[in-house]
Amino acid sequence: MTSAELSAEAAAAALAEQESGRSLSRRIALGLVVAFVLLLPATQPLVGSYNYVMQVAIVALMWVAMSSSWNIIGGYAGYISLGHNVFYGIGGYVAGLALVYWGVSPFVSMFFAGLAAMVFGLLAGLITLRAKGPSFIVATIAMLFVISLLFDNWELVGQSSGLSLPLPPFSVIWIKVPFYYAMVVSAFGATYLSYRVAHSKFGLGLRALSQDETKAEVAGINTRLYKMVAFGLSAFFIGTAGATWGYSLGYLRPTIFFAIGTAAQMVLMAIIGGRATVAGPVIGALLIVGINEFSIVQFGATELNIVVTGGILLAVLLFFPLGIVGSLREAGRLPAFLDWD
Amino acid sequence: MINFLQVLILGLLLGGVYALMASGLTLLFGVMRIVNLAHGVFIIFAAYLAFFASDKLGVDPLISIAFTMPMMFFLGIIIYVLFFPRIETSARYVEMTVLMTFGIALVVEGLLGYFFTGIFRSSRPGYATDSIIIGDIFIPMGQLLALTVSVVLLVGLWLFLRYTRIGTAVRATMQNRTAAQIVGVNVRRISAISFGIGMALAGASGSLMSYLFPFFPARHWQWVALLLALIVLGGFGSLKGAVIGALSLAVAAAFVTDQFGPDWSPMTFYLALFVILMVRPQGLFGKALRI
Question: Whose C-alpha in A171, A248, A260, B131 is 20 to 30 A from the C-alpha of A211?
Answer without folding.
Answer: A260
